[in-house]
Amino acid sequence: MPRETNAHKFERAIEIEQRMCQHYPAAECALRYWDDPFRLTIAVMLSAQTTDAGVNKVTPALWERYPTIADLAQADPSEVAQIISTIGCYRVKSNHAVSIAQMVMSDFGGQVPADMDKLQKLPGVGRKTANIVLNEGFGIVEGIAVDTHVNRIAHRLKLVPRDEDPSKTERALLKLYPREMWGPINHQWVLFGRQTCTARRPNCGECFLSDLCPSCSCDGA
Predict the structure, then answer these.
(1) What's the predicted TM-score (pTM) here?
(2) pLDDT band (50, 70, 90) for residue 1
(3) How far does the chain reach from its first CA to its final CA, in angstroms?
(4) Domains in the chain, ordered, with CATH?
(5) Which of 76, 93, 115, 128 is catalytic?
(6) Is 147 an annotated catalytic residue?
């Protein structure tokens, strides 16, 4: 196949996102965080290498035991680990949760900072988490949160160069999409990745993007 021009890739990318908006007009964060940026930060941190559903099962007990940031800042990480023990990497995450609470109290006056660089200073918080916290918790769109779903889909759709890591994938997507489209991409593509473009066996035969996907095999293989 001839190499795709940048102009054609841009047109294809825009059409992809327009269809995503039609298919997922009300996509939203699957994590429960009670409209609290701090609880959102903890929930997104906990969700690494774990399903959102798994996180949603442990956070109610976590917040019942530690209802405020100050409470969690004074917690014993081993006790936090017991509460979240059903999710992946729970021991490391329990330490991060307590450390995040301590840093929010000591460095940011008890308020989660609405700032990309400051958020990434929190233990266990990378750019993906910071993007979600800013977007979902503060209505600030500075980038696109690239998790495993978004990264996989961007590669399958051949919108980014082969074998790009999440940070490079984000930079490529930011160049490809106009800023007004950045906000909903993560939530939409996560749903698409769970329902249609799954990691093990993408359902190409029923995919609403099949005609725009260079990787599509219409038999679903």
Answers:
(1) 0.92
(2) low
(3) 20
(4) 6-27+144-212 (1.10.1670.10), 37-126 (1.10.340.30)
(5) 128
(6) yes
